[in-house]
Design goal:
Layout (H helix, E strand, L loop, with lengths): L1 H6 L7 H23 L1 H8 L4 H15 L1 E7 L5 E4 L2 E4 L2 E8 L4 H5 L6 E6 L4 E3 L2 H10 L5 E7 L7 E6 L5 H12 L11 H49 L3 H7 L1 H23 L1 H19 L1 H7 L3 H38 L1 H6 L3 H53 L5 H43 L18 E9 L9 E9 L3 E5 L6 H6 L9 E6 L2 E2 L5 H5 L2 E4 L10 H5 L8 H10 L3 H5 L18 H15 L3 E5 L7 H15 L3 E5 L3 H5 L3 E6 L2 E6 L1 H7 L1 H13 L1 H7 L1
Helix pairs in contact: 2-8, 2-11, 3-16, 4-6, 4-7, 8-10, 8-16, 10-11, 10-13, 10-16, 11-12, 11-16, 12-15, 13-15, 13-16, 15-16, 20-22, 25-26
Bound molecules: adenosine-5'-diphosphate and magnesium ion.
Length: 722
């Protein structure tokens, strides 16, 4: 749960809303308890003979006498003899229980005694059971009363005097409520109004609960999405500072899916936490309190279901965690396949690979389905398991409670209400089990999200200083680089010193490490050992901003953003006026084709510059580099996508532009190579030789080979022409 808890930190700024939601939860739980609490009065009104008032009076009397009394019909023929007169009695108050050393017991009352009336000095005043209880209930604490009592086996009443004790808070409250509602008396039909009143109360409670539920869900939901938004921003920030090797290893789609599906899963978990997880336990606690109030011993019996429930929840939870993690990984592979085929849709079509791609997509899709099925299975299994457990315990507890009921130790209606409270408790517990599943799923998502945040960022040494504009030299000193996933160095022990303003062409077969070597200059990669020095300062010791802002980079795969051409040219620069953009565009031969576009420089180029040709894109990226006025220019096979017609002109532009700048060019066409001050030849990551075209043609066999093959390819022809 570590990562999930960490994700909650993002909710801190919205704690006011969360606090309101928590208050709402408390209200919801109280209303829930209130609704449950309404059940017993409901039962009393609907089912039992005594009614609401009779119940209130009886519980007051029971409390004050510390006994358990029940109003009863007598068996047929029951009679008493008083002063020689025999009188039939049809109802009595039966003493069914006595508190040990309680007021009634001390006064001499025995269990199974019949109380038939009161004797207030003027002889026996015979009262029907309900009236008698009502009479007793009117007495205040400390008031004395003389009861007329008939003991089993005798029909001569005797008197017992006792002083009323104190009633419990609940009974007193109940008495107050009863006093407030008009007493319908013993006529059952008259209770209908009370029943209606109860229904209104239930209605009001439900409406209020609905209102609080709305507020709670609304506040929680909005707070969570805000938090998720902040989290996404943080993640984005983290991703922007990840080294480029992170993406070449894990793939871009993996990071993408962590933004999309993982945050969604996390939001669902948080929503559950602040919704169900607060509400349901609150409801469970409320129900437990009610159940405990009616019978604490029985309720404890019911709680033995706890440990096995805990065991199951834990087991399922672990499986859920695993399934969720795999499902999220499957999401990311699916996005990977999608991105790859959709971006390469032209190639897929041209090579009629639709079938194969469909199969590939189907496979990752099915993988995802399998994990989702597993999650559903766990989710689905949780409820029935919890339910069965609950039912078994409920049956055990109900058996015990039944025993009490049939032995007059518990009222029938209390039994019903207690059972209802017990069931009311199981429902939230069952839901909580599901909640725990959700948490496990979210934890897996949170872990993946924070993995992104915690991945090592680009190295920034403390005390990095600003690099002043490059004026003297650029030096590779014993530089080695090995990709994290590779077993051999891609660049090995390269030593090369370039003076400011020089143009260096780097040639070599494919995979000889040219791109890797030049990536070390703007620190797209950091040398594994050795140093790259600009004006004698190690690039590791300067701020990334000051370093990169003076390096212009034009690569083979041009990157254009979904924006206007002008914005793409001025990318990375603030407040550039149109004239400056146009000047740069003219130098890079962008101007001529932009002029023909309907919106000119305001034409949107589409994602990845989809609406432009390769050569056009390349020229825009050169214009972008020109506009930045860099001290160091890097061209990595920049000409490979430009048709030979414009290549010639761009070459001219480059020549003008690179004057006074240190220029590093990787080129296959010798037109570019020939004008360089130094030509460096690379093979297998090593710098084999460096010198002028003439020198190399004389002494370097690799160079001779490269030159002759290029010449035959036609690249050399244009070189000869210049
Ligand atoms: P060049 O630009 O000269 O064609 P590169 O510098 O791109 O060559 O690659 C040099 C070597 O490093 C190659 O053998 C290539 O397979 C390897 N390589 C390139 N990029 C990566 C990467 N991201 N992870 C692992 N190995 C890589
Ligand atoms: Mg390359």
């Amino acid at each position: 749960m570590k990562n999930f808890l960490r994700s909650l930190r993002y909710l801190r700024p919205y704690r006011v809303r969360i606090a309101i939601a928590v208050l709402c939860v408390i209200c919801i739980a109280s209303l829930w308890a209130g609704g449950l609490g309404m059940m017993l009065p409901g039962a009393k009104i609907l089912i039992s003979d005594e009614g609401l008032h009779g119940w209130a009076y009886l519980s007051l009397v029971n409390d004050r006498m510390e006994a358990k009394l029940v109003g009863q019909k007598t068996p047929p023929g029951a009679a008493i003899e008083e002063n020689g007169v025999v009188r039939q009695i049809d109802t009595v108050v039966n003493v069914v229980g006595l508190k040990k050393d309680g007021i009634a017991q001390k006064a001499g009352l025995l269990a199974s005694d019949w109380i038939i009336g009161v004797n207030d000095g003027e002889g026996l005043q015979r009262l029907r059971d309900d009236l008698l209880i009502r009479h007793l209930a009117q007495l205040q604490q400390g008031q004395e009363v003389t009861l007329s009592v008939v003991r089993a086996g005798s029909n001569h009443p005797h008197t017992i005097t006792l002083a009323m004790g104190e009633a419990k808070l609940a009974s007193r409250a109940l008495g107050k409520v009863a006093a407030w509602i008009p007493d319908p008396g013993p006529v059952y039909a008259k209770r209908f109004n009370m029943f209606l009143g109860l229904l209104v109360a239930v209605f009001v409670i439900t409406i209020l609960r609905g209102l609080f539920t709305f507020l709670q869900e609304y506040f929680v939901g909005t707070a969570i999405w805000q938090g998720i938004m902040d989290l996404r921003c943080d993640n984005y920030n983290a991703v922007l500072h990840l080294p480029t090797t992170f993406f070449s290893e894990k793939g871009v789609s993996d990071a993408t899916s962590r933004f999309v599906s993982d945050t969604g899963e996390l939001a669902r978990g948080q929503n559950t936490l602040l919704g169900k997880t607060l509400v349901e336990p609150a409801k469970a606690v409320a129900s437990i309190f009610i159940a405990l109030y009616w019978s604490w011993k029985l309720t404890i019996i019911a709680l033995i279901a706890g440990p096995p429930a805990y065991y199951f929840i834990r087991r399922f939870g672990k499986k859920m965690h695993r399934a969720s993690k795999r499902a999220l990984e499957s999401w990311s592979s699916m996005l990977g396949v999608l991105a790859e085929t959709l971006q390469g849709i032209r190639v897929v079509k041209a090579y009629t690979m639709e079938g194969r791609e469909r199969k590939r997509f189907f496979q990752v899709n099915r993988q995802l389905l399998r994990q989702q099925n597993r999650m559903e299975r766990l989710d689905a299994a949780t409820s029935p398991t919890m339910e069965s457990l609950g039912i078994v315990t409920a049956i055990v507890a109900a058996g015990a409670a039944g025993y009490l009921v049939f032995n007059y130790k518990m009222d029938r209606d209390v039994f019903l209400v207690w059972m209802a409270a017990l069931f009311a408790m199981f429902d939230p517990v069952r839901k909580l089990a599901k909640v725990s599943m959700r948490f496990q799923a979210s934890e897996a998502a949170a872990a993946r999200i924070f993995e992104l945040q915690d991945a090592p960022r680009e190295v920034i040494r403390p005390l990095s200083q600003k690099l002043p504009r490059h004026t003297r030299s650029l030096e590779f000193r014993n530089v080695c680089y090995r990709y994290p996933s590779a077993s051999v160095d891609a660049v090995r022990n390269v030593n090369l010193k370039i003076l400011a303003g020089q143009t260096v062409a780097i040639v070599g077969p494919n995979g000889s490490g040219k791109t890797t070597l030049l990536s070390l200059v703007p620190r797209l990669l950091d040398a594994t050992s050795g140093q790259v020095l600009i004006d004698g300062v190690d690039v590791m010791d300067v701020t990334l901003r000051s370093l990169r802002s003076q390096i212009g980079l034009v690569t083979q795969d041009t990157v254009l953003f979904h924006a206007t051409i002008a914005e793409n040219i001025s990318y990375g620069l603030r407040r550039v006026d149109r004239q400056t953009v146009i000047e740069a565009a003219q130098k890079a031969f962008v101007h001529e084709f932009v002029q023909e576009m309907p919106d000119g420089y305001d034409t949107i180029v589409g994602e990845h510059g989809a609406t432009l040709s390769g050569g056009q894109k390349q020229r825009i990226s050169i214009a972008r580099a020109i506009l930045r006025d860099p001290a160091i220019m890097i061209f990595d096979e920049a000409m490979s996508q430009v048709d030979s017609d414009s290549e010639h002109r761009i070459h001219q532009a480059m020549e003008g532009f690179t004057k006074g700048r240190t220029t590093l060019v990787i080129a296959h066409r010798f037109a570019t190579v020939l004008s360089a001050d130094i030509i460096a030849v690379m093979q297998d990551g090593m710098l084999v030789d460096a010198g002028t075209h003439k020198q190399l043609l004389d002494r370097c066999r690799l160079y001779q080979h490269l030159y002759s093959t290029q010449f035959i390819d036609g690249g050399g022809v244009s070189a000869v022409r210049t």
